[in-house]
Each structure stands twice: as C-alpha cells, then as structure tokens.
Amino acid sequence: MLDIVRSKQKSFLIKIAFVVIILSFVIGYTMLTAPTDQRSDRAGDVAARVNGDAISFAAYQNVYSNLYSLYQSIYQGAFDANLERQLNLPRQAMQQLIEEQLLVQLAENLNLSVTNQELVNSIAAYDAFQVNGQFNRDRYVEVLSYQRISPEQFEASQRRELLTQKVRDHLQQQVAITEDDVVTFFHRENDTINLDYVWLTADLVESKVEVSDAALEEFFNANQEAFRIPERVSLRYLLFDPARYEAELGTFSEADMDRYYRRNLELFEVEEQVEAAHILLQLDQDSDPDTINKRRELAQNIRQQLREGADFAQLAKLHSDDTANADDGGDLGYFGRGMMVSEFETAAFALRPGQISDVVRTPFGFHIIKVTDYIAPGFKPLVDVTDTIKAGLMIEESRKIAFEKAMDTFNRNRRTGDLEAAAKENDLGIKETGFFAADEPINGLGRVEEIAAAAFSLQPGELARPIMTTNGVILLTLKDQQPSRLPELTEVKTAVEKAFREEQAQTLAFELARKLLDLAREQQDLAAAANQLDVRIDSTGDFSRSSGYFIPQIGSSQELADAAFALTEAEPVIDNIFTFDDRYLVAALKTAKRADFSALNDVDIAQLRERLLLEKKEQAVSDTLDELYQQAQIEIIDPELITAFQN
User: Fold this and answer.
1) DSSP letter string over 262-286?
2) pLDDT tens for residues 355-381?
3) Which class is domain 2-174+635-646?
4) Domain spanning 272-376 has what CATH number?
5) pLDDT-flagged residues of the chain (< 70)
6) For the structural domain made of 232-249+392-482, what CATH number should be given?
7) Cα 158 to chain center, whole Å?
8) Cα–Cα distance measured from residue 582 to residue 587, given in angstroms and rounded to the nearest whole number
9) Which of 177, 195, 369, 503 makes an SS bond possible with 357, Cβ 3.0 to 4.6 Å?
10) Average pLDDT of the chain?
C-alpha cells in the first residue's frame, strides 16, 4: 500500500485505496466481520458457541487479524512473537466476539431492533462512501469490492453494530451521578500519596545460607527429578555448501534480474532524508523565564542576521552550543524521519535545500535549521543495483542447487540410511557432532531448531530429510544416543548446591520481610523498623489514582494500589507482604496530600462530571456483560482458542 502511495500516481485505484484506508480506521473490525451462522451444523466452521449461537471461525480470524494490525501499528518494531504471546490476541479477539454475541442476545430480550432506515442513514453517513458530500452507491460498491466484502456482508455487520450500540445506550440511560460522586471522583484522581517501601531479596541474605553435605543430600533426594540428565544424541552429517555449486550457474537474464528486483524491493528502498545544519542555543529543563526570554531574543537576533545575508556556518561556530558540530558550521549530515525530536524533524522536513527555518523550540533549547540537501523517498533504479541483484541471485540459485542435490541424495539413500554412500556420491566428507541435549547448541552447527527436532525423532540408521541452514543444506543421521537418566549427587553437586542456596536465600528473604513487617506494625513506623534491621528504604514520590494501578519505582499492582490508598496516618503500614517475581516488598504511607475541591471553577466541575458520567456508563455496560458472562453457556471449540483461554 505504501509503495502505491509513494508512487504518487493519480489513478482511480489509489483514490479507492485511500478511501479503504480511511474506512478501515473509521469502522474497525466491524466491517471485516461477517455475521455468524447462528445455528451452524458444520463444526469445522465454528470457533465457539454462546448460549447455542455459533461464532464462525472466519469471524474470529477477521477480528484477530484486525487486532494484530492494530497492535503492530502501535508497537511497530517492538511488536514481536513474545509481545504477541503476552497480549494473548486469540483470547482478546474471541472475547470481543463473545461480548458482541451476548449484547445481540440481550437486544432480543429487550425487544430492541434496527430499522432499515436507521441502517441506511448510518451507512450514508460514512465519508468513505460519499462523493461531494453525498452518499454514492457506485462508490459504496467499489470500496467494498476493493476490500472483498459484499454489500450484504457489510450491511449485516453494520446492522449488528448498530444493534449492540442500542443495547449499550439502553444500559447507560439509567446512569446518574450525584454531587458527592463528583467530589469522590475528584479526590480519587487528584489526592496523592507517597509510599516508603523496602525490597527484600535473596541477594541480601545469601551470605547467611549454611550449606552442609547432609543438607545437600536431603535437598537432592527431595528434588532429584529437577536434576534429571536429559536425553542426548550425537550426529553424523553431510554439508552441501552452496558455494560448491556457484560454478554450475550461468549468466542471469534481464527477466531474472527484474523478477529479483521486484520481489525484493525493500532491499533497494531509499528513505526520505534531509541534509541539514543547525545553530543550538541550549536551555536546561529548569531554566527560569528570564533565561528563556534572553535565549529566545538571541536566537531571533541570529535569525535576523541570516536574513540580512550573514554566513550560517560562521554564526554556528560563534553561537551554537552543540559542541559536536559547531566547529563544522553546525553540520548534522543526512538523517531520516524518526531520528530527531518531533519539533526539529517537522521543521527540517518542511524546508527545501537552501532554506532556513524560523526559531524552533525543542526540549534542548532554541534551534535555527538550514537544509542543504533533500533525498525523496523511493527506490534505487535497477540499473544502479545490478551487482547486488547478481550477488543475491547467485546466493538464491546456488542454495536451490544445494538443496536439490541433498534431496536427490536423500531419496536415493533413504531406504538404506547409508551416509557413507551418500558422501561418496557427492564427494563430501562426513562431519560429526559431540553429544547434545534438545535445548543445547550443537557443536559446529549452533542452535538450529529443525536439526534438534529431527535429531530427537530419528531412529538409528535413518536419514533425516535435508535441512536448510545459514551455512548450507544438512543431511544427517544419528551417531549415538544417551537416554535420559537420574544422576548421582556427585555428578550434579554444583548445580544442586546452587539451587539449594537459591531456595534457602529465598526463604530467608521472606523471613526477613516478615520480621520487618511485624516490627513496622508494632512501631507504626517502617523507616524506624528498616533502620533497626539495617535494610535500605526508598520512597515512591507522590502519585495519584489517575495512574491506575501503576506505582512509581515499583510497578503495577492492583492489590498494592488499593491497599496504599486505604492507609491512614493512624494505620500507615500495609498489613501484607507483596511478591514481585522473586522479590518481597513491605510498604507504608509516608505522606498524603488531599486535593482542594473548592479551588475548581464551574467549567472544571462540569468537565469532571462529564468524565465521571462517561466512566459510569462504561461501567454499567461492563457490569452487565460480567453478569451475562456468569449466566451464559460458552463453549470454546477451536483447540487454539481453548489453549488461549487457559493461559
């Protein structure tokens, strides 16, 4: 899509593409979700059932895909498989569909429905379907067709969305708030507390752990399975190195090169860049207003000198506080988007070569920017990257030949499992690995999941199918096996002692936390108790409920946040030890500040009331959904989703 946009063609296709982009943001996953087949008998098409009504697997896939794209756009480069697992997108997607289904069922009980005119009005209101401000049937069909959605599908999903919104509106109509509610809400958001806290960790007490042979033997006997030596294997293998086959390749045709170029366009992308210089008048974050005004006046004076023809480089050498480039006339070289703070980037990319910005304020101070060159986004032409393409094709084609030769060899020898014969056929030497477990690197090969998986599923005398690695293609067979077994203590004594020390230190850390808490409660003073036990005490700094359950310096914990805001001067110590990973926390109230509601004006109070009302309305829907969840018969059918709901 971005490639099409960058080409800046004025085709009808691009106009439709832009409409689809806008439409996807406006409608969200509703547009992508076809209505469910309410009593489908085709089990393979059903992902879940809610009170007997089916949720199709296609609907689940569409919502999942939309959620995936949403989080990908939010987290960008940080969105990886690990984060995806943490977010549990399958569960999120199915929960959305279950909630929608529950609301649709509730609509039937409430005798709510959507009229045809309401449906027509809602569709006609989308800008994406309008031409010159008016709904256009042809545009409507074209946009949906481009997205591979029929009008019937879209209208069904839109009717469903309107119906669930009617239910939400109905549930929210009865919500009301009092003046006391507003005052309570204000204090919840603006009252602040500051906690004293102490971390108790194994590191603090590890030196106090006593180790004896008798204690180690008892610990080992009780936890012997934890020290089981895993199955280990060694391999014999052939390496089909692609470099051996490069000589077999001929020259590459223009068609070959063109296909490679178009297939790998991202390799030849040229990012938008500017070459710029700047003059920086630095400001500290705590600069007073007088200093800020003086620096701004100096920056404006320098800008005026530049308007009158002064040399930019000379003024940079004279005035710029950026010591890294002031002597070079403020030269920053080339940089792309995302490399500078937003204010600087916006100003720089708005200029063209030779232009100088007005004074720009950033967190670093005042800048004057001069752009000396501009590189437009696009792609390097094929003629400029022929050597890179030939090298890429050489790698691709030689790897194909290596794999084909390995596969031919495998097919000829798979019945006998004769690696010697395979080696002789290809004039290759047989290589060997040492013993390794499934989760260990392989000597000479490193960590290759496919090789490890094949190695531990092979039978003696069996050849594994060829496996492509970064070094070439591997054809392997088992050399030897060592079965899993329980060890003697002498074999794993170092590991046993390490685990024993960790367990004992953890126990001692908890005992120290309990002792600290008891002492703090007795004295109603955590700081005094910490001093008595010679442990470090820290403070969170002021924070309010508006941070949710996040506590500065500590992290997120609803249990801790709830307990902290219930503390009083008379009872300042939280009567609980909190566990964060392997650390224990004891906390107490240090200070509390109550915000002044009387300082609010009418506008502030009205805005506060509006926010509270919105929160209460959302809570009303959430509470109803929770109740419906408790009463509903929900059957998750898809195995992947069953696992997601168990996690």
Assistant:
1) HHTGGGGEE--EEEEEEEEEE--TT
2) 999 999 999 999 999 999 999 888 889
3) mainly alpha
4) 3.10.50.40
5) 1-44, 647
6) 3.10.50
7) 30
8) 17
9) 369
10) 89
